[in-house]
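Quick bug: Nucleoside 2-deoxyribosyltransferase output formatted oddly.
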Amino acid sequence: MTETQDYPKVYLGGDLVFRKNAQQLFTAFKEVCLAVRLHGVSPFDGQDEVEALPPGKETSLLIARLDRGLMDKCDAALFCIDPFRRAADMDPGTAVEIGYMAAQNKPMAGYTVDGRFYHEKVQTYFEQAWHTPLTEERPHNGARVRWLDADSMIVHSEGLLQNAMVEGFIRQAGGDIAIADDILSAFRAAASDLAGLIYGAAEKKDASHG
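Here's what came back:
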């Protein structure tokens, strides 16, 4: 039996799989997990058969099935919520995974290198990509001021780093969102948070049966 088999399995979700240095990141993240008695599981760990397949619809759907299967086998998850492809929002696939793990009532924590509030990210995106600022909408009934983008869509989730459903699901699962200037430091803080959540819950359970 290897050392990691005794530790809770943690799914390492995020846009990391699309980054050129993905394998190096996952190697470093797994070492961080071991240091806090967690077993990090990369999406790549379940995709050996994918490497030999041609790109296309069937291969893409297979990856989705394999990732779902990995999440089913994991006890918890750590999610990167960095903005994706220069936009304000995170990787949509990762958002789906957060919802899936939340539905299974599994502990989660998140991390990011971008500590700006969501509305600031939206504002910067529209200014840089479309050269249009956000506009204020001041209701006559005294309700709070709302910000609208160039398409007159309300900029929501005030005070949060990402969409309220994303951050809300992570926090409802007991975890926090770690912020740091570099991704390894952010991940390390999130892993420590998750380990405390898991082992703290285990200690409380043991005490109640003592």
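Actually, after a second look the formatting is fine. Residues 83 and 90 are 4 Å apart (CA to CA). Closing.
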